[in-house]
Design brief:
Residues 1-25 are annotated as: Disordered. It comes from Actinocorallia longicatena. GO terms for molecular function: hydrolase activity. Residues 1-12 have a biased composition (Polar residues). Residues 13-22 have a biased composition (Basic and acidic residues). With 462 residues, the protein is of the alpha/beta class. It folds into two domains: 72-275 and 373-460, Alpha/Beta hydrolase fold, catalytic domain (Rossmann fold), CATH 3.40.50; 280-368, Orthogonal Bundle (434 Repressor (Amino-terminal Domain)). The protein contains 15 helices and 13 strands. It has helices spanning 20-26, 34-44, 153-158, 174-182, 207-223, 242-257, 275-282, 289-301, 303-312, 315-324, 329-336, 351-356, 359-368, 392-404, 425-446; strands spanning 55-56, 59-60, 78-84, 99-109, 115-125, 137-141, 161-163, 168-170, 186-193, 235-240, 263-269, 379-384, 409-414. The strands form three sheets. Strands 3-4-5-9-6-10-11-12-13 form a nine-stranded mixed beta sheet, with helices on both faces. A hairpin with a 5-residue loop joins β4 (99-109) and β5 (115-125). α5 crosses α6 and α8 packs across α9.
Length: 462
């Protein structure tokens, strides 16, 4: 029987809820699957859902992902937990392989300083950690999954492939997670703010929300009872693409936001360090839908961006932004691949051009830019030299800025043949070819091995 632990403080501020129009758009009557939802609710110790459950593109979102009305005050506090069945599990005399997973909901703080409930998953590996010290922990920030609640990384651990005619979600990060577990490293995965949780929209690629959610996932994992983690467990962060931006931001903000967490190492692969440049890269690409996710997320955080966008977007653009808010990567590619933002604006200008003409939006995106703070601990920065989605140049600039601040940076430009312009292949290939080396590098940091970085070589590198 599923177990759920609930901790909440009655005197905390009321949780910010998604606007009523958003709930009406996403919450649809469901005739199928209500029995399953009721069983889940009964097994987890919560009351069964009344008549309807939240759905996103035909996928029923479990009641676990509904945040409570009031949230605890302390960041990283566990709100509820539940056993999470992994899709791929093998039997072993020492326990299930690769490990036992727990679904989490914990408290975090968003970019505007407001409390937010975030979900995720912790996996306790069955394999023994054979390095120095107690079992370490990696905070895993997933790459781009989408903006619909059905795309949440924790759901992808249970359902690595979701295809129902309305949505296509692929848990491509599961491979990296299993590689970490095979090293005996515990992993905690964050779903980010608003991805999975049914009370708000996911703030895709927003620097502060992502960093806070990742750091608070580490805090939540350390507070989870009956794990092998100790106060001396070394901590690492890992992320590629959207996840690389999250891990990079977390490494920058950790000294201020979570000073009690000591980072032994951070892997930031293809981080969207400068959204102004990344927006130009994704516009017209196979992943053009990510531009809509960025606009939706930033508009929720910054009213000024919402005002500017609303003043320029046409009816087709409004419909696309609304539709994209419930999509995963697969359906976004199928529906919006190679679309250009010029199709979405009244005067035919691109979103990039509109941003360039708006001092207020440029100021906001400058606040979102990575590289203004020295990251904590050693960092490995990876970028595909021919990456034309999360464009290579802005990643290298991030490494240069960090090196100038005296950071311990290992910069790794990945050189591969051109696999097709704007096809997403030049962005994904470095993830696959470099992942083993990245995990090896991070494992060495968690094993207490020192690194001096490669800043001295950076001027001669692409």
């Amino acid at each position: 029987m599923a177990r759920e632990t609930i901790q909440a403080s009655g005197d905390t501020p009321r949780q910010e809820r998604r606007p009523a129009r958003e709930i009406r758009r996403r919450a649809l009557p469901v005739t199928g699957g209500l029995a399953a939802a009721a069983i889940l609710a009964a097994g987890s110790g919560v009351s069964a859902a009344p008549q309807h459950r939240e759905t996103s593109r035909g996928i029923t979102i479990p009641a676990f992902y509904d945040p409570p009305k009031h949230l605890p005050r302390k960041n990283g506090t566990l709100i509820r937990t539940q056993p999470l069945p992994l899709a791929v599990t093998l039997s072993d005399v020492k326990g299930p392989l690769p490990g036992r997973a727990t679904r989490l909901m914990y408290k975090s703080t968003d970019a505007n300083g407001k409390p937010v409930a975030v979900t995720g998953a912790y996996i306790e590996p069955t394999k023994k950690w054979r390095g120095r010290g107690p079992r370490p922990l990696i905070g895993m920030a997933a790459g781009t999954m989408g903006q619909g609640d059905q795309c949440a990384p924790s759901l992808a651990l249970q359902h690595p492939l979701t295809v129902n005619g309305e949505t296509v979600s692929v848990g491509y990060e599961d491979l990296g997670i299993y590689r970490m577990l095979n090293e005996g490293i515990a992993v905690v995965v964050t779903d980010y703010a608003g991805l999975g949780t049914t009370d708000r929209l996911h703030t895709y690629a927003e620097r502060f929300d992502q960093a806070h959610a990742l750091l608070d996932a580490v805090r939540a994992a350390k507070r989870l009872p009956r794990t092998s983690l100790t106060a001396k467990s070394r901590i690492g962060l890992y992320g590629y693409s959207q996840g690389g931006g999250a891990s990079a931001a977390a490494a920058e903000l950790q000294p201020r936001y979570a000073p009690e967490i000591h980072l032994s190492g951070t892997y930031a692969g293809a981080p969207p360090a400068d959204l102004t440049q990344v927006i130009k890269g994704i516009d017209g690409s196979a992943l053009a839908g990510a531009l809509g996710w960025s606009i939706n997320g930033l508009s929720q955080t910054y009213p000024e961006i919402r005002r500017v966008i609303n003043g320029h977007v046409n009816a087709k653009g409004r419909a696309a932004l609304k539709d994209l808010s419930t999509t995963c990567v697969g359906d976004a590619i199928l529906r919006y691949g190679f679309s250009t933002s010029k199709q979405w604006t009244r005067d035919g200008r691109s979103v990039g051009a509109i941003i360039a003409a708006s001092p207020s939006v440029k100021k906001i995106l400058a606040r979102e830019r990575l590289g203004s703070l020295k990251p904590a601990g050693p960092v490995r920065v990876t970028t595909g030299v021919l990456d034309d989605i999360v464009v290579h140049g802005q990643v290298r600039t991030l490494a240069v800025r960090w090196c100038a601040k005296g950071a311990n940076v290992t910069y790794k430009p990945v050189k591969l043949p051109n696999l097709g312009n704007k096809l997403l292949t030049n962005h994904l290939a470095p993830l696959l070819t470099d992942q083993g080396d990245a995990i090896t590098w991070l494992t060495a940091r968690l094993n207490g091995k020192r690194t001096t970085g490669t800043c001295a070589k950076l001027p001669g590198q692409p």
